[in-house]
Design brief:
single chain; alpha/beta; Zinc Finger, Delta Prime, domain 3; 3 domains; 17 helices; 56% helix; elongated; binds zinc ion
Amino acid sequence: MAAKRRAAKRSRSAGSGAGVPPGYNLVRLKDFIGNQELVSRVKRASLPQSALFAGPEGVGKKTLALGLAARTDCRNRSGRDFCGNCESCLKVAGGNHPDIRLIQATGASIGIETVRQLTREARYRPFQGACRVFIVDQAEKMTREAANSILKTLEEPAETSRIILTTAFPNQLLPTIRSRCQLFGFRALTRDQLKSYLEIRYGAEEAELRAAFAGGSIGQALQLDLERTLQDRDRVLAVLQQWLANASFARLFESCEEEPMRRDLKKRERVREYLDILRHLGEDLYFLRTGTESRMVNLDRRGRLLELAERVDLDWIQDLLYHLREARGDLDRNVQPLFCFETLWLKLAGRA
Ligand SMILES: [Zn+2]
């Protein structure tokens, strides 16, 4: 399992080292997982001049955009798909096809200079293919100036230029950008779709867990550090178990003082992760109590969770989930991380 994981890691990060051109993961249209209706729609049609690929993180928006870009210049196109092996496809995969540009945020945003360069290049004829394709990944990260400066190009692109914006947050784009693009809506993958895709790489048992933890995102399922996630989960589950056994603050604060909890609870990002894990555990208790356990995430701890589910009622679970949302909000409002975590339990005790 570890060797497979290392291999998977290598193939994901291939070509991303310093001085090496970036490598992109090309997936042929026939091998695309999920969103099949959308894929066959784009397969039949030619690429619109301005397109918006909108949908959750990690479901293949950028991958499909790159695939469609590769198709415009593939030398061995068959069945409206690109081949992935010809000189042109290899250039796309290597990130050095002269007509295909993938624009990504450097740091938190995509600035006006980057977009100005795009709009300049979009006026030129292609070097070797039938058209130039510009993909702006996470387009919501364009600054307001950058977004304004792309409007005209979206409205009247050169005959031979195509622009694809991708985003998981379409509402954060200017309405004038949205209205100038043809919209393609992506959906989260079902757990079964994810599982069957992951099985080849990880085997049935690990694939099932990854699919459960990934919430419909291939990207997340592949990037997930499963070992660490399960260790974190067991730590949070132990706190929850202890709490439900005797609801003792003294004992709770003690376990918050044990390493690595003590160190982690000082960090905002780690507490955010712990709260997410606790939310999944709370939801699993809910699924167990309501007979909808096929939706559970922590499948490998079903037995322990079932014991806990018998000790709590639905009101308690609702309260837990409510106070978790509050704790998440406090965390985002810069309340001290440890305080967010500890007061959650005080609030839960206060309900009685
Ligand atoms: Zn090709």
